[in-house]
Every structure is written in structure tokens, then in C-alpha cells.
Amino acid sequence: MRTGILIDELGVGFDDMTAQAREAAKLGYGTLWLAQRGGWDALTALPALGAAAPGVELGTCVVPTYPRHPITMAAQALTVQAATGAPVHLGVGLSHRYVVEGEFGYSYDRPLRHLREYLEALNPLLRGEKADVHGEALTAAGGLTTPGADRPAVLVGSVSPRSTRLAGELADGVITTWAGPRAIGEFVLPTLGPDRRVVSGQLICVTSEVDERRAWVEETYGAAAGVPAYRSILDRDGYGRVSDSVITGDEETVRRQVESLEDAGATELLVMPFGSPAERARTRELLAA
User: Fold this and answer.
1) Are 227 and 157 in contact (CB under 8 A)?
2) Is residue 121 a contact partner of residue 144, using CB atoms and an 8 Å limit?
């Protein structure tokens, strides 16, 4: 199982982000991931990480599709790949109704139709071909000239059955959130189909203060349990709360829980460290090794 790490971009400047990238590369992480969380633009920021950590792969987890036309998304991803020379893992996703309609003012009607048409346009563009999609959700008719750029991989942020099935058809794999070993092994892999990647995003903290850290996760992310798709994936592992899904404890406990994800079939671990600065450092060092 490959291991990458989420670079913390919330409320930090580029000096901090590039320092994180250099440390992750020194520790031996294979991929640096950036989220799109209402701050820095993940795709635009990737070249700064690539410059700080040459040779390390780069990914987004995930860029919402609605506010970025597939021709624009493809142009950005190909530009990042050519500019850095590093493999790029383009994680895209639908986001949520309250974001798409409430913040951007787009209709969230039939999101799976939108995602299908989006991927049908995005894939040929990334291969250097023209898109010719005239759908109900979007139109994309045109191509890009990006000599020397290699095709970025396409991953879908997915936990629902229909979007996971669609990712198996039209993408290289999925990025999961809140999904534990049972959900990955008994639902994600069978639904996705063979020869597809499963990037398992996990909040992880090496600590002796397990109850305190779970309480922080519940306070910060607990509302996600009320989102239907997330509620469904939590139920598949028997998790009552979001905090039940996090990986936390001493080194041996964390290592054992990570191994259970690999045994379930996850192809890549996306480490999302949390806790105090010292605990985050312990987490980064343990999982890089």
C-alpha cells in the first residue's frame, strides 16, 4: 500500500506549506495531497509543493467539479503536470448541495448526471483529444494543445454506490472519506470493480490522549454524520459517530489499524494527521516508516 500525506493548507501561508512538503519528502512520503477547502486553490498551489519536493507525486483531494468547466480543469491539471514534471493525481468530486447551491448558485439537480457528463468530457481532454459532449448538464466541445504533458490520473471523491460505480467506469479509482476496512473491503472494492485504485483518506493521530482527540474530531467534523452519503459509509463499518472512524492510539495500535486497511484492499493510504504539533510529528514519522 502506497502512502501519501495531506499538506495542511488551512490558515497557513506558502512558507509553511512548502516546509511541510520538504519534510514529507525527506521522510519518504510518495504523494503530497492538497484539499480544496475554501482557501488556497489546490491545483494552482501544487507547483509550489513540487518545487519544494522534486520528484514527489502530487494530488488533489478533491476539487469540486461544478465551478470549474472540464476544459478549464483539464488545462490546469495538464499545466501542473508539465510545469512540475511529476505525476499528478487529479481528485475531483461533486461537493454538496449546500455548497454548490448555497455558495456558487448552481443547480444540484441530478448530480450523478452532471458527474457522468463531466468525466466523459474530462477524460479525452487529459488524453490530448477533443471533448465532444453536448449533455443535459454541460457542454464541452473543444480541445487543448499541451505538448509534452502526460495524462494526470483521475480519481473521484466518492462514498455512495452510484458515484463509486461511475468511478469504476470512467475514472482510475476513488478517494474515500470516513470509510474503514469493512466499507472498503465489502462495499467500495466490489462496487468499483477490478484494477481500480482506492485511496483511503484517514484522520490519524498517534497519542496517549485518545478520548480527547476523538472529542475534538466529533466537535470539528461530527456534523458530517448527518450527510446522507457519509451516514451510509459510516453505517457500513458500524460507526455511530464520525469520531469512531478515526485511527488513534499508540504506535502499535495505529500501525495495526492501518494494516487492516491494506488487508481490506486499499491501494493507497492518504494520511491526514491531527492532534498537537508533537502528536502530528509522531504520526508523520510513524507512517512514513
Assistant:
1) no
2) no
pLDDT tens sequence across 109-144: 999 999 999 999 999 999 999 999 999 999 999 999
Based on C-alpha coordinates, what's the Rg of the chain? 18
- What pLDDT does residue 96 have? 87
Q: What was the pLDDT predicted at 228? A: 86
Between CA 157 and CA 168, with CA 163 as vertex, the angle to 5 degrees is 90
The position carrying cell 450523478 is 112
Q: 133 pairs with which residues across the strands? A: 140
Q: Tell me the CA distances in angstroms from 273 to 28, 40, 115, one per residue in order.
A: 16, 19, 30
Residues in a beta bridge with 6: 33
d(CA 109, CA 63): 19
Q: Rounded CA gap, 111 and 120, in Å?
A: 14
Give yes or no for a contact between 264 and 185, defined as CB atoms under 8 angstroms apart.
Answer: yes
Cβ atoms within 10 Å, residue 215:
13
Collect the ranges in the chain with pLDDT lower than 70: 289
CA distance 149 to 236: 40
Instruction: Tell me the pTM.
Output: 0.96
Name the phi and psi angles at 49, rounded to 5: -70, -40
User: What is the pLDDT, as a whole number, of residue 289?
Assistant: 67
Helices (H), 202-250: 210-221, 228-236
Q: How far, in Å, are 70, 83, 140, 157, 214 from residue 79 at the CA level?
A: 14, 6, 19, 22, 40
Closest CA to 117 of 128, 131, 97, 102: 131
Cα–Cα dist 50/286, whole Å: 23
Which residue(s) pair with 177 in the sheet? 201
HSE of 81, CA atoms in CB hemisphere, 13 A: 22
Query: What is the pLDDT, as a whole number, of residue 182?
Result: 97
